[in-house]
Amino acid sequence: MPSKSNASVPLPASKQGLHPRNRQRGRYDFAQLIGCSPDLARFVARNAYGDDSIDFADPAAVRALNRALLKLNYGIAGWDLPPQYLCPPIPGRADYLHYLADLLAERHAGEIPTGGAVRVLDVGVGANCIYPLIGHGEYGWQFVGFDIDRDALACAQATLDTNPTFADAIELRFQPTARAIFRGMIGERERFHLTLCNPPFHASLAEARAGSERKWRNLGKADPAGAAPRLNFGGHGAELHCPGGEEGFIRRMIAESADYSEQCLWFSSLVSKATTIPVAQRALRAVGAREHRVIEMAQGQKRSRILAWTYFDEDERRA
């Protein structure tokens, strides 16, 4: 169960807006985190407010914090990934899963379905494998995760090999066709309750670098010598950019979902840009989706949203 938080202690600004079931909703207990993952200690120091914290601009510190959070909250040992791969912010990733759980509960008498009967497809599982790890740790769901990057899959598999309980619940697949999404990954007789995805945000590597430069300038940490900026959450190739960027990827995902309309209860994707939503809604009308939801999410000042859609009516979803 999620740990209890003291209601009299205000949430840090970065934690405000998180889902009520999010285990990271309260302040980080760094003493407890270091106790289960001692490597974190070298990154922890007092901040300007006198609180223990890490430098969230340091990729190694973010990886160490993630490793400790996964060990403390879900019993996941040995999580790691090469520096070039996306190191996800765990609170936000957990929120996505909690909101999808709420979506399933709507036609399940308000009760979140748990256990291995619930099957979830992760589009672009990545080297971090974060959604399957948290989703199985929280709800016991079974996952299939696929990616176009063999090295990323090998890294994810190394984590699963170290955690046999999770390995039994999570299957990894290689997508050989870079422009395909569901095609070749959903078998003829397979059924899923959910799909989820964190799509590439940018349309090109140059656009991704320009976005990084703006971020570092806004933080006042741009290198005056003009060195390429680093990302605290990393990112590699297809994790960051694809033809058409986020909007193009989601349009392709919606188009392909129509071919698997009877094999998945809810399709979904994270959407970072608010301008993508009306484009996606037009695409959903074009393919005949029965219903769609836009679920707002917040973590401090960061705003994003989940777009979920289904081809089943209410009675069919309940059944």
UniProtKB/TrEMBL annotation:
<protein>
    <recommendedName>
        <fullName>Ribosomal RNA large subunit methyltransferase F</fullName>
        <ecNumber>2.1.1.181</ecNumber>
    </recommendedName>
</protein>
<comment type="function">
    <text>Specifically methylates the adenine in position 1618 of 23S rRNA.</text>
</comment>
<dbReference type="GO" id="GO:0070475">
    <property type="term" value="P:rRNA base methylation"/>
</dbReference>
<dbReference type="Pfam" id="PF05971">
    <property type="entry name" value="Methyltransf_10"/>
</dbReference>
<dbReference type="GO" id="GO:0005737">
    <property type="term" value="C:cytoplasm"/>
</dbReference>
<keyword id="KW-0489">Methyltransferase</keyword>
<dbReference type="GO" id="GO:0052907">
    <property type="term" value="F:23S rRNA (adenine(1618)-N(6))-methyltransferase activity"/>
</dbReference>
<dbReference type="InterPro" id="IPR016909">
    <property type="entry name" value="rRNA_lsu_MeTfrase_F"/>
</dbReference>
<keyword id="KW-0808">Transferase</keyword>
<keyword id="KW-0949">S-adenosyl-L-methionine</keyword>
<comment type="similarity">
    <text>Belongs to the methyltransferase superfamily. METTL16/RlmF family.</text>
</comment>
<dbReference type="InterPro" id="IPR010286">
    <property type="entry name" value="METTL16/RlmF"/>
</dbReference>
<feature type="region of interest" description="Disordered">
    <location>
        <begin position="1"/>
        <end position="22"/>
    </location>
</feature>
<keyword id="KW-0963">Cytoplasm</keyword>
<dbReference type="InterPro" id="IPR029063">
    <property type="entry name" value="SAM-dependent_MTases_sf"/>
</dbReference>
<keyword id="KW-0698">rRNA processing</keyword>
